[in-house]
Every structure is written in structure tokens, then in C-alpha cells.
Write a structure and sequence with these properties.
The protein is of the alpha/beta class. 34% of the residues lie in helices and 21% in strands. It has helices spanning 2-5, 25-30, 34-42, 75-80, 95-101, 128-146, 154-168, 177-183, 185-191, 234-237, 245-259, 305-317, 332-338, 350-362, 397-406, 440-451, and strands spanning 6-8, 15-20, 52-56, 60-65, 84-89, 118-122, 171-176, 201-207, 214-219, 221-225, 265-275, 287-289, 295-297, 323-328, 344-346, 368-369, 387-388, 414-419, 423-424, 434-435. The strands form four sheets. Strands 7, 8, 9, 10, 11, 14, 15, 16 and 18 form a nine-stranded mixed β-sheet that branches. A hairpin with a 5-residue loop joins strand 12 and strand 13 (295-297). Helix 6 runs antiparallel to helix 11, helix 8 packs across helix 9 (185-191) and helix 11 packs parallel to helix 16. The two termini are 32 Å apart. It holds the Pfam family Peptidase_M17. Residues 300-307 form the Cytosol aminopeptidase domain. This is Leucyl aminopeptidase family protein.
Length: 454
């Protein structure tokens, strides 16, 4: 769908959108005929940054005033304008992405018809394919996260990986059953209470030339989180269909990497489980052995995401990748600290941190670095095992979760952990309420920067 909304400008009939900087509005307005000035005054359009007005001349025209042309400059118009074809008077730049994302609709469960498309013409033909790929990847994250848990379980995540592999010539390996219990005991423990049709598994996709640098992407795939025996209240469980948001991000980033044919050996890992409640559910106080070897005293069955990620990270590290990126809807503490818009970034690699933070600014996809504070590592101490999964007290919850994960990443490998929310609690232009991608474009930009020119 996205490719139909952004097309090369070959002089087709189209309505005009005029983009202006705030200081250019008054000179522009002075050059307009009286009927245009009257129409804008009637709409109380003052030229304030971020505003827009629509006026009738020979056809529908639109004026947008922006303090800068960013990814969301045209997003509101993409939602508000009548169906039709438009062109921007001047350069579009990154605003084309917002035009596409502003028309995203999740209609799987709707019977009503949606509005027709708004097509944007651009002279920047070289940027069309990349912009469409970014919009499609973001839309895929949104679709996966918005889908109800009854329609998206571990098997459906496996199907998504299989379809992705077929599209790009990758291979998929799935570990389940006895092999999962013996080889990935933490993943098995978390998912063992689910019904047979939703049994836990580790999904691995491999793509690319083995001679190229190895990059691992890991995504938390908890398709629904009851909290386990430490059951969540109903309000806390309401959005837990989104607890596979990390897996959605990792899948979408893998899709971008393969579509761009970046010269990397890609390894995608998705531990897919349902944290269910049954007689065989793992319990508070159980001591679990990890794939890496260290034992974990389970102090909270609702801190299950870090357990499944631990086994997946250990597996990723066995092939000595140059870089590991993991995505997880991991902690409420991250939302308390930074709110829904800013995913915390955790890494000990100063260069990687700088690259990701800079890319976040450049891509209008910000992250905020929180510390892997060594002083809090002792909070993970256990009286009977090598560590606990969730310290008592709740202090520095996002940090201690990241410190737990760090124990399963081999030293010397560049690693970054993104504690993404994967959900937008209220709509913004180009970003409807519901599932959403965070740090996806920033991470992709860093991968292109590091490997795209090799």
C-alpha cells in the first residue's frame, strides 16, 4: 500500500502543498491574492510553526508552516486532506515518511470502509524505495502489536519469520519441545504452562554471506503476559498483547536489513512464549538453570522477559557476532523514568551509544541513554543461586533488568539493549494510538552507516 502513496512526479495533475518556514510566511502571504488572504484569516491561520490551512482556489490547496521539515511535517495533512494527488512546492525531505505513516490504518477487525488514499508526488525519486521500506516496516510492527493475542501466538511469530525468510532467501530454525527444555531452559520454563498449540520455542533466522560481519538481532516474543503466578491485575494485563513488541521490532529491522542487502551475516533470534497460568507454571522461588550455565532464583514470574532474553542472548553470543541489538517491552520502570516516547538505551560501548543517539536525532526516532551502573549489580545477588531475576524494592528497575541481560552477553561484543514500549497511548500526527515502532529507524540508520559501504 505504501508504495502507491509515494510516486515519482512526472507532471501529473495534482493539488499543491506549500511548505514554509515561519519567517517566510508573511512575505509569502503578501504575494497572495486577496481571496487567499481572506480564506486564511477566516481559518485564523497565523503562520505559527506546526500549523496548516486548507483553502479553495481552482482546487484544494494547502499551506503548512513548519519550524523545520521533519518526519512529521506532513503527517497531519495526510490524515486531513481529501482523497487525491498532491505535490509539495519545494523539497519534501524526511516529511515523505510522515505522509505515509499518517495514512496507516489497522483494519483487521473493522468492517467499515476506510478513507481513500492521498498520493504524494516527489522529484526525489531515489528516496522513494527507502522511504516506502521504512513505512512498511513500521506498519508491520504496528500490525503485529495491534493484533489480539488470540490471533498471534508463538506459532504466528514463527510463521512471520518463515514468510520473511522466503521473501529474502534466508533460513529458519525452530527449537521446541525436549530440545528447548534441555538447550534453552529459561525459555522453556517461562512458556511451559501454555497450551500445546501455543508451546514455547526459539525462532532463529540466518541470512547473508558467512564471510560478512555477523550481526545478531534479538526480540522478546512474549505473545501474552498474565504475569504468571505473580498474576497482573486486570488493568496491567489489558495491553499485554503488546508484550511481543520486541520481537516485532527485531523482525522489522531484519526485513529492512535484508531488503537493503546490507553486507552482513544476519542472525535473528526470537524467544516466543506465552506466560500463562497452569499447574505446571514456573513458580516464585524456583531456581532455574540458564543456557549459559549460571542459575537464576526466580523472585517474580512477571519478570519473565529477561529470562527468555538471557537464553537468546547466550545463543547469539556463541557465534561471536560483531554486534548484538536487542529489543524488549521489558520494564514499567522505563516508562516511569522516560515516558512512552523515549526508549531507554543501555550499552557499555561509548561509540555505539553515540552512533545510536545521533541517529535517533537525525531520524526523528529518539532514544535516551540510561546507565549500566555497576554499583547496582549487587542487587541481583541471591542467597541460594547465582543471581535473582528481579531484585526486591523496585529501585532502578530498568537498569537492573539491563544489568541482568548484560551477564549473558560475552565480553568484547558490542551490545545495545532497547527497552521499547511498542505502544502509543495517545495519537500524534503520523502516529496513531496503538502499536508503534520505537528506535527502529535509528538502529537501521546505524547498521547502514556501519555496514552499508563495505
Amino acid at each position: 500500500m505504501a508504495d502507491a502513496l509515494l510516486q515519482p512526479d512526472r507532471g501529473q495533475p495534482a493539488r499543491t502543498i506549500t511548505l514554509l518556514a515561519p519567517d517566510a510566511f508573511e512575505p509569502w502571504l503578501a504575494r497572495q491574492p486577496q481571496r487567499v488572504r481572506t480564506a486564511l484569516v477566516a481559518q485564523r491561520f497565523t503562520g505559527a510553526a506546526g500549523g496548516h490551512a486548507i483553502y479553495a482556489e481552482d482546487d484544494v490547496q494547502a499551506v503548512v508552516v513548519a519550524s523545520r521539515t521533519d518526519s512529521w511535517t506532513l503527517a497531519r495533512l495526510a490524515e486531513a486532506l481529501p482523497t487525491g494527488t498532491y505535490r509539495v512546492d519545494g523539497a519534501i525531505g524526511p516529511a515523505a515518511l510522515g505522509w505515509l505513516l499518517g495514512q496507516y490504518r489497522f483494519d483487521r477487525y473493522r468492517t467499515s470502509e476506510t478513507a481513500g488514499p492521498r498520493i504524494l508526488l516527489t522529484h526525489d525519486v531515489a528516496a522513494i524505495d527507502e522511504t516506502v521500506r521504512l513505512a512498511a516496516a513500521t506498519g508491520w510492527v504496528r500490525d503485529l502489536v495491534n493484533t489480539g493475542a488470540g490471533d498471534l501466538g508463538p506459532a504466528e511469530l514463527e510463521d512471520a519469520a518463515e514468510r520473511l525468510a522466503r521473501d529474502h532467501g534466508a533460513t529458519v530454525t525452530v527449537t521446541r519441545g525436549d530440545a528447548l527444555a534441555s538447550g534453552f531452559p529459561l525459555i522453556h520454563a517461562v512458556g511451559q504452562a501454555a497450551v500445546k498449540e501455543r508451546a514455547p520455542r526459539l525462532i532463529e533466522l540466518v541470512w547473508g554471506d558467512p564471510a560478512h560481519p555477523r550481526v545478531a538481532l534479538v526480540g522478546k516474543g512474549v505473545v501474552f503476559d498474565t504475569g504468571g503466578l505473580d498474576i497482573k491485575p486486570s488493568a496491567g494485563m489489558r495491553l499485554m498483547k503488546k508484550d511481543m513488541g520486541g520481537a516485532a521490532h527485531a523482525l522489522a529491522l531484519a526485513r529492512l536489513v535484508m531488503a537493503a542487502r546490507l553486507p552482513v551475516r544476519l542472525h535473528l533470534l526470537i524467544p516466543a512464549v506465552e506466560n500463562a497460568i497452569a499447574g505446571n507454571a514456573f513458580r516464585p522461588g524456583d531456581v532455574l538453570r540458564s543456557r549459559l550455565g549460571p542459575t537464576v532464583e526466580n523472585t517474580n514470574t512477571d519478570a519473565e522477559g529477561r529470562l527468555i532474553l538471557a537464553d537468546a542472548l547466550a545463543r547469539a553470543g556463541e557465534d561471536s557476532p560483531e554486534l548484538i541489538l536487542d529489543f524488549a517491552t521489558l520494564t514499567g520502570a522505563a516508562r516511569v523514568a522516560l515516558g512512552p516516547d523515549l526508549p531507554p538505551l543501555f550499552t557499555d560501548d561509548a561509540v555505539l551509544a553515540a552512533d545510536l543517539l545521533a541517529a535517533g536525532v537525525a531520524q526523528d526516532d529518539p532514544l535516551w541513554q540510561l546507565p549500566l551502573w555497576d554499583g547496582y549489580d549487587e542487587m541481583l545477588s541471591s542467597d541460594i543461586a547465582d543471581m535473582v531475576n528481579a531484585p526486591d524494592g523496585g529501585f532502578a528497575g530498568a537498569i537492573t533488568a539491563a544489568l541482568f541481560l548484560r551477564r549473558f552477553v560475552p565480553k568484547g561484543i558490542a551490545w545495545a539493549h532497547m527497552d521499547v514500549f511498542a505502544w502509543r497511548p495517545s495519537a500524534k500526527p503520523g502516529r496513531p494510538k496503538g502499536g508503534d515502532a520505537y528506535a527502529l529507524r535509528a538502529c537501521y540508520a546505524v547498521l547502514k552507516q556501519r555496514y552499508g559501504t563495505r
